[in-house]
Design a protein that fits this description.
Elements lengths: L1 H6 L2 H6 L18 H50 L6 H14 L12 H12 L6
Length: 133
């Protein structure tokens, strides 16, 4: 049944939609050729693995975007705050980071202003006391 859900196999799902658990198959006649069942299971596992790789790939892409935005912010702060000794509000620095995240391709629904404190703490740690936030 799990394999049918993974493969979105309409015919099998329709036949057994009323079955609550695999324990109810005791009263039903369910037979497969072993080779057919194995083939179906292998197809389901291949699709499941593909979906997991896509999900992992998406996570990796988002992580790389966050790293690029953080590195761009480091260069910005290095140039303007440390070298030019300009004073910036922490809110402006966080806004700039969020803008970079969007510019580099992160979806707006995945940019959380309420997590700015984590970004600012990471900046403070990176610059080891050279900046005060």
């Amino acid at each position: 049944m799990e394999d049918a859900k993974i493969l979105d196999h309409k015919e099998i799902l329709k036949k057994f939609a009323h079955v609550e658990s695999t324990l109810e198959f005791v009263s039903k006649e369910v037979k497969y050729h072993n080779s057919c069942r194995n083939k179906f299971h292998n197809e389901a596992m291949a699709k499941k693995n593909c979906l997991e790789k896509d999900k992992e790939s998406e996570w990796l892409k988002k992580t790389q975007i966050r790293e690029r935005a953080f590195n761009a912010s480091i260069h910005f702060i290095q140039e303007f705050v440390i070298e030019r000794e300009e004073v910036l509000k922490s809110r402006d620095v966080a806004d700039q980071y969020r803008m970079l995240l969007a510019e580099f391709g992160l979806d707006h629904s995945e940019i959380y202003p309420e997590r700015d404190y984590l970004y600012l703490a990471k900046l403070t740690e990176h610059f080891e006391g050279k900046i005060v936030i």
